[in-house]
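Researcher: I'd like a structural prediction for the single chain below. Treat it as a standalone chain; there are no partners to consider.
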Amino acid sequence: MKKSYIVLGVVFLLIALAVIQYPVIFQEGNPIPVFFGIMAIELTGRDIVPIPELKMIQKAGEEDHLSSYLAQREWLFADRLGSGIIYKRNGEQLNVISRMYTERYMIYEFDRPLR
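Model: Treating it as a single chain, here is the predicted structure.
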């Protein structure tokens, strides 16, 4: 009987947390890919991780990890305009929008797929 109260309390706590944090959790739509991206960063030590829908996630900070990732694909940093970052390769331009997901993570969104 006591265990059922503990389980019920934990379930209630999780539901309350989800309701309170709803805007943060669902700001990117489906939170499951973002959750797996965060787990990949935390558990594997990777600096930046691709998530679906032309996005990447990294720990908050400068975009050095993004620039390194893109440099491996021959995209070179060109300019930064507020939250927009511009990369160039062979006359092509890649626009990236950066935004904070939480105080610990940043999400980058590309204007087109990387090739």
